[in-house]
Task: inverse folding
């Protein structure tokens, strides 16, 4: 059973607009959430994270929102750029199991010029 | 600071053989986690080593094993290779403490023929 779900396999956005990638989780023990960006045949690159005591974290064009009651988080990219085109993975870890990240299946973002 | 390095980048083996993959973490990081990425299963956690001890383990058969050395470098071994072991193997390093961000290496692409 998937503990971290990214229900949209793909998303297409126009350059300059907002990209919103969504992630749902089922395990209430998760206390740290991360977003990674990945190109084929490369390792994931860390983008941004959020702990369960916060509901928002910003870093430049990237903002992550966490809704604990809904067990939902989202990544907003504003403005979207063609270089943002990649697969985005949501990941979560639980206290006491920090070395074990549980990943969603990923969302492929295409930003069109 | 140098990033996580993995060697070799590519490997071709035949069924029944064994393979050893190597990972050098970011300087100062004491935790190394290993993941397998396949098209069907996505990114799955194999195990984590912290200060030379296996701290967490995923749901993989005993053919998959690992170890960590005193300098935090880690190796992963797969014995009696099967066709289904063909995958991208990723290692990630982190401090191993608190709310911890894992940083990934480029991966080793293993093909089993």
Result:
């Amino acid at each position: 059973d998937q503990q971290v779900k990214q229900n949209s396999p793909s998303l297409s956005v126009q350059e300059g607009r907002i990209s919103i990638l969504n992630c749902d989780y089922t395990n209430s023990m998760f206390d740290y959430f991360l977003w990674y960006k990945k190109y084929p045949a490369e390792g994931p690159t860390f983008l941004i994270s959020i702990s369960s005591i916060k509901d928002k974290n910003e870093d430049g064009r990237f903002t992550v929102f966490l809704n604990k009651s809904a067990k939902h988080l989202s990544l907003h990219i504003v403005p979207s750029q063609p270089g943002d085109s990649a697969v985005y993975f949501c990941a979560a870890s639980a206290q006491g199991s920090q070395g074990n990240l549980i990943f969603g299946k990923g969302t492929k973002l295409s930003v069109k010029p | 600071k140098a990033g996580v390095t993995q060697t070799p980048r590519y490997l071709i083996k035949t069924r029944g053989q064994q393979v050893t993959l190597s990972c050098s973490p970011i300087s100062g990081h004491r935790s190394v986690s290993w993941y397998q990425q396949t098209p069907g299963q996505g990114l799955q956690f194999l195990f984590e080593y912290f200060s030379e001890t296996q701290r967490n383990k995923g749901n993989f058969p005993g053919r998959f094993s690992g170890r960590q050395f005193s300098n935090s470098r880690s190796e992963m071994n797969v014995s009696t290779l099967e066709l289904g072991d063909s995958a991208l193997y990723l290692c990630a390093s982190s401090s191993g403490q608190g709310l911890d961000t894992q940083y990934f290496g480029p991966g080793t692409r293993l093909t089993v023929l």
